[in-house]
Amino acid sequence: MINTIVLGGGCFWCIEAFFQRVPGVTEVVSGYMGGEKPNPTYREVCGGNTGHVEVVKISFDTETVSLEQILEIFFEMIDPTTLNKQGNDSGTQYRSVIFYKDDTQKETADQVIAQIKSNYNDPIVTTVEKIEEFFPAEEYHQDYYNRNNVAPYCRLVISPKLEKLKKTIKDNIEK
């Protein structure tokens, strides 16, 4: 069965590239969610005045990967203790958030957060919020890493994180 979840945690290029490599993930779409402005542009969201977050909408086959595993991988990729900041990206558009679509997803998100809390010295600030309207990002943001992997940001920021992700996938999915 195909399920979807929307996650925000810093630059959507990174999260998109990570989840494209997770077995069972069938589609990853970069976009914006959580703000007041309809059909925002990248420039508007980066300005920090729309209330939107850079997010990815992840579709996944639940027979291969569970929502719990998706969230565990998400928390391996981000720092859930930094408010409105991931790495060098700072601003409300980079906050960490899980947008759930139903009570089951909310309960799963809350359970995963409760399980990982003890791994951190600081409180987890990742929010769990009801899904809102998803606005796909501009076409040039889709499949960004795969189309631009020699660009400096991709080589210096995303590629090293992908190496770490290989171990996370092996530990969490390929058991």
How many extended strands? 8
CATH topology: Peptide Methionine Sulfoxide Reductase, Chain A
Helix content: 25-40%
Radius of gyration: 15 Å
**Overall average residue pLDDT:** 93
End-to-end Cα distance: 21 Å
CATH architecture: 2-Layer Sandwich
In the CATH scheme, the class would be: Alpha Beta
Give the percentage of residues in beta strands.
15-25%
Strand ordering within the main sheet: 7-6-1-3-2-8
Query: Please, what is the CATH homologous superfamily?
Result: Peptide methionine sulphoxide reductase MsrA
Summarize the structure in short.
This protein is α+β, with helices and mostly antiparallel strands and 175 residues long. The chain has 6 helices and 8 strands, in the order E-H-E-H-E-H-E-E-E-H-E-E-H-H.
Name a few traits of the molecule.
175 residues; alpha+beta; Peptide Methionine Sulfoxide Reductase, Chain A
Describe this structure in words.
This protein is α+β, with helices and mostly antiparallel strands. It has one domain (about 1-170): Peptide methionine sulphoxide reductase MsrA (Peptide Methionine Sulfoxide Reductase, Chain A), CATH 3.30.1060.10. Helix content is about 35%, strand content about 20%. The protein has helices at about 10-20, 40-45, 65-75, 105-115, 145-150, 150-170; strands spanning about 1-10, 25-35, 55-60, 85, 90, 95-100, 125-130, 135. β4 (about 85) and β5 (about 90) form a beta hairpin. The longest helix has 21 residues, at about 150-170. About 35% of the residues are buried.
